[in-house]
Amino acid sequence: MYNFLMTCILIVAVLIIIAVMMQPAKTNDALSALSGGADDLFAKQKPRGFEAFMQKVTVVLSVLFFGLAMALVYLSSH
């Protein structure tokens, strides 16, 4: 069981990396990072389409990763 969970957590970790890398960049240039992004204050929009889907996939994979990690901790302590 431990080996199965370890394999699952490794697969989920790789999927999280892929999901995060597929998300579109939110800032356009380095100047907005230096200025604190004040010009983007009113440009906040609700993500739609592909961006919203990728955010949901990332959240689901993160929760799954956390659950698998807790299961591994429980199995290794008993």
Automatic annotation (TrEMBL):
<dbReference type="Pfam" id="PF03840">
    <property type="entry name" value="SecG"/>
</dbReference>
<keyword id="KW-0653">Protein transport</keyword>
<dbReference type="InterPro" id="IPR004692">
    <property type="entry name" value="SecG"/>
</dbReference>
<protein>
    <recommendedName>
        <fullName>Protein-export membrane protein SecG</fullName>
    </recommendedName>
</protein>
<keyword id="KW-0811">Translocation</keyword>
<comment type="similarity">
    <text>Belongs to the SecG family.</text>
</comment>
<keyword id="KW-0812">Transmembrane</keyword>
<keyword id="KW-1133">Transmembrane helix</keyword>
<keyword id="KW-0472">Membrane</keyword>
<keyword id="KW-1003">Cell membrane</keyword>
<keyword id="KW-0813">Transport</keyword>
<comment type="function">
    <text>Involved in protein export. Participates in an early event of protein translocation.</text>
</comment>
<feature type="transmembrane region" description="Helical">
    <location>
        <begin position="53"/>
        <end position="75"/>
    </location>
</feature>
